[in-house]
């Protein structure tokens, strides 16, 4: 290719598989487009998707808010691949609820009232659709060059929700998870990302990742997953007793004081925070020193 030839950095219709994305790498400082950050992130992934540290290291002088935002967009795009892989195996019949082991159940916030009986595959679709709508919102993210602090505050909630897709796949569709992770290292990259930028609490990370000091959650009744607070949850049958008692569900993990020996009964008092429905909670003593979680 001569030096005067214009380089077209897109895949045209009819591009052969071996030629897909096969254009020369760019230097970040020389990229003259509002999509520069996205292009560099994708370039680093194509170069070596297992080199997580290099992919997550922001270029010198790069706005950190935009860097986090663009990475989260990329995570959501790639997670669609896992959703496609799951859809023939994760059905409403096999996975009637969004769970991770027998200890965690998640409520789907896409419904008018957060719904417990939303099948896992529908929860996955709703979560990715909701994340796409928010991240492409002209109200909260009108620019991809600068982002307001008030909008950046929403990234943590998106991270917490989409991570549950990894959790469900790991504990209930392990072979598919391993197949996807081997080709993308996406869960590893996501975990390092949220820890690096403090976008999630460590006790909410359920998938063990080498080097991240996150251990697997035991599925045994009342079993411990290495002593982490996340592993202190009760089984779904225990949690269901709270739900069937007439109390409303919807405990947000970020609101809970996860101290040993304290459970949380959710009252009927609700308040709207942004577009998320959060339940007012009060602690209750539990003789089993374990916790039951119904999370929005």
TrEMBL record:
Task: Specify whether Metal-binding is a keyword of the entry.
Answer: yes
Q: Which UniProt keywords apply?
A: Metal-binding, Zinc
GO MF annotations, alphabetized: kinase activity
In which domain of life is the source organism classified? Eukaryota
Q: Which residues bind Zn(2+)?
A: 90, 95, 168, 173
InterPro entries listed in its UniProt record: MOB_kinase_act_fam, MOB_kinase_act_sf
- Name by which UniProt lists this protein: Mps one binder kinase activator-like 3
